[in-house]
Amino acid sequence: MSPPENHVRVHSVAEAYLYLLTLRCPHCARGPVQASGELTKTGDDTSSWAIGARCGACEHLGSIRFTINPTPTREAARSDCINPTNEPSLAIDLLGWLTLFQSIINASEKEPDRSASRQLAHEAAQCLDEAMKFYGEEGELPSVDAFFGDEARRRFREHPEHFARAKWRQRRLMLPEASVKTTREGRRGKRWWQFWRGGQ
Q: Which contacts of 168-173 are long-range, i.e. CB under 8 A and separated by 24 or more positions?
């Protein structure tokens, strides 16, 4: 069944939170947009979820609805696995994943707690894994379909060298492999996506 038009389709709870971090506020076009609560089920549809979102600049408060497929179990909802499938994201494009990677890896390098730093490096690695799903089996550059908006396509046209597969593959080799079992809870009670955005 196709998700409702006003729902964002994601592959996990983790991807829903990461999508939120890529948004600009629809009212002031700035941000950052931050979660104002927990992601919760809506109605009887087990794949339909919603989360409150607040703009850090204008403080506009709204709600974003998601369809999560595959529907997460309780354990999967707590996992930091972004996408258990080989399908590229339908919510975050290639530029979005590369931007998330850079932000998270920068936070990892500044994090004084070694355990938290390793967790952030793991999350950054997953973002690169998601980015690589937009590349075909051959060729150095992705297709224009890897970019969802006009601004992202413009950046690709003007600087295609920034999106060369070899560059990002090399960066990925420097990062840790996926751990066997991880959860969304970090040390000191912080969730993993809050380490690099200053959340509580």
A: 168/98, 168/128, 168/131, 168/132, 169/132, 171/101, 171/128, 172/125, 172/128, 172/129, 172/132
What is the C-alpha separation between 22 and 83, in angstroms, rounded?
17
Quick: pLDDT tens for 83-129: 989 999 999 999 999 999 999 999 999 999 998 898 899 999 999 99
The three-class DSSP label of residue 51 is strand
Q: How far is CA 11 from CA 26, 56, 76, 125, 158, in A?
A: 24, 26, 11, 17, 31
In the numeric block, which tokens belong to residue 189? 């009670």
How many DSSP H helices and E strands does the chain contain?
A: 6, 5
For 26-80, what is each residue's pLDDT tens digit? Answer: 888 887 888 888 888 886 666 789 999 998 889 988 889 999 987 777 777 777 7
Q: Is 2 helix (H, G, I), strand (E, B) or coil?
A: coil
Q: Biggest alpha carbon distance in the chain?
A: 47
